[in-house]
Design goal:
The chain is an alpha/beta fold and about 260 residues long. The chain has eleven helices and eight strands. Bound molecules: 2-phosphoglycolic acid.
Length: about 260
Amino acid sequence: MKDIIIAGNWKMYKNLSETIDFFTSLDTKIKETQFKRIKTVVCVPSILLETAQKYKSNSFIGAQNIYQKEEGAYTGEISAGMLKSFNIDYCIIGHSERRQYFSETDATVREKYLLLKKYEIKPIICIGETLEQRENAETLAVIDRQLSGIFADIALTADDYISIAYEPVWAIVTGKTATPEMAQEVHAYIRKWLTDRYGIEIASNIPILYGGSVKPNNIKELLNQEDIDGGLIGGASLNPQDFWDMINTAREIYE
Ligand code: PGA
């Protein structure tokens, strides 16, 4: 049965002591919890990965990005191999903020995916349309283009672990969430795309997360949609109580 993923994306928030406080607080809530299907993941800035690994109890730690080369003279970047050496389990790639501010493309996301695969780190691959693209009724074409670019010549087998996060760019940080129906429409399209390409067995095992202003008060209706298998949560994941509330909503639905 496919995983349900509740992932926090801290972006460029929290310092060292705030990180320890977060995990200490989450720990008191999450420590004794047995999860069957749900994976809780906290994606922290790379400088905080080691601390997060040390203080986490029952969650997995993820990075927010890697560079698309194995190693080399790329000042300021980190590699998939480095993440592996810290036993990091997940990594976000292709986030729209990386695409917008750091000129990432589907081709670089593809290269990053291949490195994560090599080092057996689970990717959370982000895709999604801008407001202008949605208003021009291009959403599904954009999704198709992004998936085709990232998975260009890539064959997936049942042993390859991936998850996809659909994050409409206009919903990120803006407080505007896609309605559950809008999200479900795109999630169903992604599932169909994966099914056409890789077959139903593989496609039905791939968690497809929704991201974009997910909050404790709207996560339930989103998770109740057939093809929504979790959330990638920015702002609302910074508060341990809110994060825990959202995990609990997922537990009510899935465990
Ligand atoms: P948000 O961010 O929940 O703050 O909108 C989501 C994301 O960027 O992953």
